[in-house]
Specification:
Number of helices: 8
Strand content: under 5%
Largest sheet: none
Radius of gyration: 22 Å
Shape: globular
């Protein structure tokens, strides 16, 4: 365990962390290097994802009252964690499955790393916004909303650049397959709902048989 925190590994982690931020400021070059120079890091991606999750929880708990109408004691923290982890998982799987069928060059791990790197602006911007939101007036509230919306749009643009470079697609083809990925996510959710519905009905059927037998005995 101590070996994981050796000076060499920490320097490597720092270098990979710097590269992750480079991808957000130079997306075309950065995501190209991520794929072709093998510069992506699962460790850095996991840390970035953790920061995104922490930011999401902090927004629910500490965002100013002008923007936040949630009652913290009754909130389920796993609901907010799942609202990020589940769509991220579906995005990676659906995008990989779809692009693999149409000569996409990206691997599942590369899609995950690149997508998480694209979320860096989310926590970089929103953590200061959480603090600022507690001091702004009603007239200044719109500015917070605009900055938040622009940040999310920027994250979407980064995802577009990442998928374009990873799969070596043109802009139009990348946009088309991103829409296809969203449709793929909808199909996966639909199939999951059918699966769990069938499982629920099957379990209910056997439970009813068990109760019937127990009643007769």
């Amino acid at each position: 365990m101590l070996k994981a925190f050796s000076k060499e590994n920490m320097m490597k982690f720092g270098k990979n962390l710097k590269f992750a931020f480079y991808c957000t400021t130079h997306p075309m070059d950065g995501f190209w290097d991520l794929t072709h120079e093998k510069r992506g890091s699962y460790a850095v991606a996991n840390v970035m994802l953790f920061l995104v999750l922490v930011t999401r929880i902090l927004m629910v708990r500490y965002l100013g009252f002008l923007f936040n109408d949630t009652y913290w004691p009754k909130e389920n923290i796993f609901k907010y964690l799942g609202s990020i982890l589940f769509p991220l998982l579906l995005w990676c799987v659906a995008n990989w499955a779809l692009t693999t069928l149409f000569d996409g060059k990206g691997k599942l791990g590369q899609i995950y790393i690149a997508t998480v790197y694209c979320l860096i602006p989310y926590w970089v911007v929103h953590i200061p916004l959480i603090i600022i939101s507690n001091f702004v007036t009603l007239n200044e509230a719109d500015l917070i909303s605009v900055v938040s919306s622009v940040t999310m749009v920027f994250c979407g643009i980064l995802v577009l650049c990442a998928m374009m470079q990873i799969h070596e697609y043109s802009f139009g083809k990348t946009l088309l397959f991103m829409v296809g990925t969203v449709l793929g996510i909808c199909i996966i959710i639909f199939l999951l709902l059918i699966f769990f519905s069938m499982v629920s009905q099957g379990v209910g059927y056997f439970v009813s048989i068990y109760r019937e037998i127990k009643f007769r005995i």
